[in-house]
């Protein structure tokens, strides 16, 4: 027997067509720093996306070719998000926070021939251009001094002039739903950045899932303040999902400082927002100093790193509910969201809200334990999180003429993504991450979380900082080494610290090796650099006490 | 460039796995007529579905084979809904309202070898069995006298005995997402019933769309009273979509009369319900006579036929909001839902609520006008509605050894489904159906709605019933013939009726041909039988007055 259903591909042009007609009245509001923000309806976005596609086609952008964007969150970036994949080309969002040499590497690796750039970002792009030999066209959108582009090699176009007068409809091609639609490079801390190429299918399904009630579940009654950048994992999929469901977008452009964010929330009254914890920390400090009305926000999606419970509590008091989400570039990024099960009191909900959240229907998850076994979902057994699903990466982009890359430490032999995160899953599917796989201590077939030991140590009143790393051990394979920075005037010793740890940590997990150091080595983004500590230990550069 | 995403199929086994773990606490409550209804968690449903699959496998059900269900809405039917497709077989729901000869035709055409039946429906099945030579196994679930099965040809099994003690996990096969999952026959008024074969992909995507906020958007805080039968277009997709999102199901089993429905709403307090207008008419009469608390219901999906505005108003007064949906067996069935755009007053919402609703992201729509042209979405230009999308049929099932059927009047040459409905679409995508394509009057390149003329005529105080049909006309191709049944003692005449019509209908649409008849011929389900009227006219059997 065969199905008798139509075989219609899941395409971004369908999101564009649907949003710009059925939800044509919904708006994208872009902050301008002027007295009035800029507003454009989804119907207008649809017409301008068609105009942009006609313009790009004329500049020689063909199906399967990447087009780069170096842009803030704004209406023109949304137009590029919809037009470029719909015409069959590949939207390549460029992370403007990366070091210039990484940016140049990424543009060259993807072989971008066209870059759309915000005028305000020309000071970043212009010095790079001599290192981007394949870039033929630069299209400048929004305010900013264009004079720096005088005499550069590529052809320069003004976005508005380029699209003006072109047809407001485009006969979008009927693509294969597995065709490439967008790409994003991970800013990995080791080695070159690696590209993930999303398909129309993956983005379409991800958008549906984001719009499902068990995920974000926003409607055309909502306005979403999209703080998470469009150059960062598709702004967590929001430009696509909001356009699909008619959710109004509030776009901060380059005004990402706490004061303008507070002002835009008070004035535009978004019901939802999405941003990393740092943004919410800054905003909290801002509104504590200069009170603003944030009460329009009833749901906030927070991800990128774990949200401190104290921050959640502070916002709870403001009537703003922060909801943890977990994901990564390789997961499009919706991996989990911490919506507690129904029917619980606020007190019962609290432990659920502290987890990374539960998996949506489209994501399968498993934990691979120390010995390679699949661990049970019992809330206690730890393993490396591996995920599978139609919007999860199977490989990295190898380049225009190369095979995809499938590094063994990132993809299991049966095709699951190895997330590099270690944690537990409760019987009802709530994920709690406890460590990074590369930092966990593999001791005698069991895993010890370095993060748990660090947090317990740092709770001691005399400890300023503590990093715990795995070091080789003849009997157990690996054992934890505790590296401690003491506060000024501290009088504690190793034995007391170890006893203190023993109050909250199982005895077999307690470190035998200890060292007091003046400071913990850190990476460029301020994380503990455990590689350095392990090397110092291996070289005998640390003064170790064994207990 | 190629996408680097995983190629994971969209399968019903994923809905089963997700619902029975992440939403394992949600429940299916089946009405029993006893003091207590029966409750089962999604986790238990998951285990029992695995047991059922093991049992069916042992009885010889293989991948691609149909298994019939002749069942009410209840927990066991949900188990069959999930187990049969997940194991790779095809769920074939049998419409117990069909005449016995049609039921026999359908079972034989699909080549069902196994039938799951509720004990209470044995009086329907047993007389059919001698006409079902391919049926080898009958599995009886729920209460009902089994003695009628003594001596029948197929092997008889008790559902509970059959699944008891079997493993509660099943290694669901990794199927092609386009593999057949379920089938449902249309109960067409002409010719043999025709089968639509849904795929895993179509059902999975349909479930996602139903769970999106622009569609039903239910959550694990909701309980859905699923009155629409599971044998009728997959109960509008609710068993799949609710299981996916953790929505509690309240299943009426055979207790579909107004009194038990009112009791189950008052006692179980569902927040949502889905049923045809007749059910809501009956329930309204019931609660008017015997008041019950229906206030738990905040949303009701109403479809199958248009809901009279007076019924919506009556329920509005009870605090229960009826929301129109339109669809058909060939559309899985979600075609439209009348959720008004955001930000309107109740008065502004009203005209939107009277439409069939707007199309969801996954459904493309076009209107094909009288001359075959695509008509604009202007709220005025009428055409036959054609739809396209991943859960819309492309053909009918031809039978085990036959090609799929693609009748010209049902499928356009470019593959769109011709719905047979005529209507208009507003610029923001709200559909208003005005007639059936076969009944519309094609007059001089324009269309005249027979239904509009009938409604206008029946508004006259002297008119009991009126049917308007197309009759051949030399000059215009077709013109309307008005067939009128007068009330007793009526004194009106044709000229007065025509003048009355002229108050609300454009002059060029007014019928020239009139006849007064004692009664309008009707079909077996009580609809006007316009074929008979047209034949009577052609045979000269009607007494025609021309004005």
What does this structure look like?
Chains A, B: GO terms for molecular function: ligase activity. Chains A, B: InterPro entries: AMP-bd_C, AMP-bd_C_sf, AMP-binding_CS, AMP-dep_synth/lig_dom, ANL_N_sf, ATP-dep_AMP-bd_enzyme. Chains A, B: Keywords: Ligase. The structure is a homodimer of 547-residue chains. Chain A is an alpha/beta fold and 547 residues long. Among the domains of chain A are: 8-199, 3-Layer(aba) Sandwich (Rossmann fold); 439-546, ANL, C-terminal domain (GMP Synthetase, Chain A, domain 3, 2-Layer Sandwich). Chain A contains 16 helices and 27 strands. In chain A, the strands form five sheets. In chain A, strands 2-1-11-10-12-13-14-15 form an eight-stranded mixed beta sheet, with helices on both faces. A seven-stranded mixed beta sheet of chain A has the order 7-6-5-3-4-8-9, sandwiched between helices. The relative contact order of chain A is 0.08. The interface between A and B is large, with 74 and 74 residues.
Q: Work out the helicity level of chain A.
A: 25-40%
- What is the SS-derived class of chain A? alpha/beta
What CATH architecture label of one domain in chain A applies?
Answer: 3-Layer(aba) Sandwich
Strand content of chain A: 15-25%
The profile of the biggest β sheet of chain A is: 8 strands, mixed
Radius of gyration of chain A: 25 Å
Annotation, overall tally of beta strands of chain A: 27
Q: Report, as a whole number of angstroms, the end-to-end distance of chain A.
A: 70 Å
Overall pLDDT of chain A: 95
CATH T-level fold name of one domain in chain A: Rossmann fold
The CATH homologous superfamily of one domain in chain A is termed ANL, N-terminal domain
Uncertain segments of chain A of ≥5 residues (pLDDT<50)? none
The assembly state of the depicted protein chains is homodimer
Keywords (chains A, B): Ligase
Pfam families (chains A, B): AMP-binding, AMP-binding_C
Protein name (chains A, B): Long-chain fatty acid--CoA ligase
GO molecular function, one term (chains A, B): ligase activity
